[in-house]
Write the structure tokens for this entry.
Amino acid sequence: MQKKLPFLQILAIGLMLFSMFLGAGNVIFAPMVGQQAGGNVWTAMGGFLITGVGLVLLAIIALTRGGGTVERLAGRVGPRFAVIFSVLLFLTLGPIYVIPRTTSVVYEIAINPHVHSKENASLYLFIFSTIFIVLTILLSWNTTKFVDRLGKIITPVFSILLITLIAKSLITPMGKIGEPQEEYLSGVFIKGFTEGYYTMDVLAAFVFGGIFIKSISSLGIQSEKEVSRVFIQAGMITMIGLVALQLSMAWIGASSVDSIGLKENGGEILAQGSKVLFGQGGVYMIGAVIFLTGITTNVACLASVSEYFERIIPSVSYKKWLIPFSLVGLIITNFGLNKILTLASPILLLLYPIAIALIVLIFTNNLFGGYKSVYVATITGVGFVAFLDALQEANIASEAINQVFGFIPLFTNGAGWIVTGLIGFLLGLIIAKVLKEPADLIQIASQKRPDHECEEHVEHLPIK
């Protein structure tokens, strides 16, 4: 008889997943969209929610269909691509970007407002980030405690604080929704769509997958059917929470301009907006929220990247990987939040379109026969334009790139990769038919997994 989890346990898993996605860095982008989009905020948020929230559940399901780990999913393109993509993904979600971004955001919102001497700001950042990352290491030491620590304790606490803040902003708004800024006067939906990249939640879904599967397996779930059911149910709980949160954060940003003016980043919006809503007590409230959400994200990311590198380099244990990744994150943190956001943008514009394309390919795999040529050609088409977008974001040959490739539809809006991806898909399909490639269908298994194959989630069936 298959073991089924009670609803309360599934709720705890959903809250654990919610807390992993809801990081301090995650909540700073919707307020910024709200301020900048003004009267166009809900159109912008429509696009934002697709990439920032909607694709997350699809990414989780795609992971189960694609092999249970991101390297197996990406391996349908090719082994070299799988290694390169996976390493870039895990390093970005770990020490290169997310851990430094999260730690910096926590400092900016929870600590910096209380620092009266700005002359020693860099020293205060270093002291705080060292303490925060040491705490991250301690909480990451044992991943089997994630459900209890994150889902049952930390998440409910910061959820109550956030709900209080959001309710106050609705009952006594800081002001009227402002006018849209220049970048949100046209192409608003696509602009919101690309801004959703910066939450990194779709990429995070790939990274957190291994931890999530371990958490479910530790509860005695072995049936593929039951694992999928738990994934979807917990994922829906997570999605509902994220949609409600991001819309609320956008509202806070959109209604804040009259009271605090336009700000450089979402961290400043939340910090100063909270003070307007609750006075000095609001500063402490948002500080507590950001601290708790920050630590959950840091723990999830550090644990995931260490678990991945232990998997590909078994001679170095999980706990030994925690230390060097933490040190790299600590060093980058001390460049400051604005510098971190600027440096990471090109990487996100490269990885996000590829991740979205992989999700679509996995879901449509059996419709096109799972042909390898389709995977290769589609990712090539997507990756080419994504690489050009990354170069432009890094201010490398921007004018020349626009002159040469500006004819591609949606290119100037940052979504030209959709067109080239579709072209690559069609070319790959033609090549596969001409070469009479064997199909590679995905069949979801329903039987109990053997213990030694607990991470195998699909069966790939070559059909000639």
